[in-house]
User: Fold Polycystin-2-like protein 2 from Crocuta crocuta.
Amino acid sequence: GAPKPTLHYRKEVEIRTTLQELSLYFIFLINLCILTFGMVNPHMYYLNKVMSSLFLDTSVPGDERINFKSIRSITDFWKFMEGPLLEGLYWDAWYTNKMLYNLKNSSRIYYESILLGVPRVRQLKVRNNTCKIYSSFQSLMSECYDKYTSSNEDTSDFGLEQETEWKYSTPNTSSPWHWGFVGVYQNGGFIFTLSKSKSETKNKFINLRLNSWITRGTRVIFIDFSLYNANVNLFCIIRLVAEFPATGGIITSWQFYSVKLLRYVSYYDYIIASCEITFCIFLIVFTTQEAQKIREFKSAYFKSVWNWLELLLLVLCFVAVSFNIYCNIQIFLLLGELLQNTEKYSDFYFLAYWYIYYNNVIAITIFFAWIKIFKFISFNKTMSQLSSTLSRCLKDIVGFAIMFFIIFFAYAQLGFLVFGSQVDDFSTFQNAIFAQFRIVLGDFNFAGIQQANRILGPIYFITFIFFVFFVLLNMFLAIINDTYSEVKADYSVGRRPDFELGKMIKKSYNNALEKLRLKKPQKDEDNKGMKGDLAEQARREGFDENEIQSAEQMKKWKERLEKKYYSAEIQDDYQPVTQQEFRE
Assistant:
């Protein structure tokens, strides 16, 4: 019959296969890095920073305390609309009052970014009597406006009904909903767009303010507009949000999205396009390989964690490709339509929304792509020790995690109930959980906790620090440390991975040099040198000659047993241990 493969041959095949797979994967990873970094432009941050400074930090003339971030009342809101917002949107002259261009054209913010179309202001309201008043207070209060939900929304016209801003507009099904601080808001509402003229827009604001466009039922106002900077080929989609909670007051938030919707403009963009094509080719190759593995190994394929990571990475890659295709199609279909009429609002928020999702999927994909490198590094001795440590102490960590989170969530519930109405860090149960993680890391507000409750505050803080920080975390470290010591001890007596990646590469390199006759074989010399070095080191550490000889005999006996029972070279040729070997 055919000769059985030797251990050396099997290792050579495994080395060759692993190195080929590693080389191919590194090419894929480099291509993915070029692709992802090509999507990100350093100018994105600076564009967002400039625009946020203009619209968020600029104060109302004559009242330095009022800007968009500090709005707390309806009066402050109208001051912002008629002041910083109006001045920020309309740049129709140079600083020397010299006209730069035709006023019929769009405004150029900071003289560089063109305002696309006209800005839009949108309001959502709730109906009266959407909440129930307690019977004892019904004589004092006849109106009740609940928090915003789609079922509570007011769709009836009001005020000066002949104008569009006083009439309800039905939601657009394609636009995404907005997740605010105190509610989730759908599209539609009472909408009006600003004019190309600064004076007309100011008169519009004054008219709306005098006729009470904002009412008690108002729950949120959106200010949407988009910019394009041709210098850096970036769109900046801006949304300013003012929420009117049922408790009263105003909570402001904002979104600044700098995105590159025009993908292929410069030569570098075409390099990115070639990387996208290469990415798709790699995706087809990897999918074919995994399909072959599943067909070959069947259910055994799913027992490996690395195989699950492979499948997750493939799914994320397919999702990223799908998002990319969808975004490009939508940009191709909508961009020309949005730019065609400059007198209307250009809804680029929809495009930016999906582009941001695509960017998030790509970010998660490259994260797991880097994690997959551990599959190859695990052949290294150090990484093998770490992985063995984690796998061996997994049961202990799970048991510890149950105990840890029981105590952790108990403290989170206590903190939320005791301090939730006074301290922002504990205002919700989720915030309380994050606040406790911050306490563990040393970031806490003890003064706020103590002020909220002078008795339970210090008790909560001291006991939490003691049980969680000093006891539980040190128990976790002790579990890891003890297991790592055990694994390291096992490796010190000879239990090592089947092969190490570094040694594989070095051995392949030396074999290549020997075959090219650029280097002489040094196997015997290395073995002699290694034995001599170990014996010399033992002598320096104080061991006598009898102990050294006994250790060498024990090592020889161990190697013979490993060769007889654990070597893949003679797996099929079982030979029992002789009585003479057993006596030795």
